[in-house]
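Write out this protein's structure.
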Amino acid sequence: MARLSLLARDRVVAQCDSDRKMTENVSLSWALVHSKHPHDVQRGIAMLEVIEDAT
């Protein structure tokens, strides 16, 4: 079930305009970091690092 939630969040980010994309990216990153799947956790950490560098 958590995998479906991550996929749904991924789709939301892809469909967002640029103003909302940052908020949704942070939300997706948070969900990924708290996943039980190591690949998802690493992806979430990488996304947060990119977000941090962009700010």
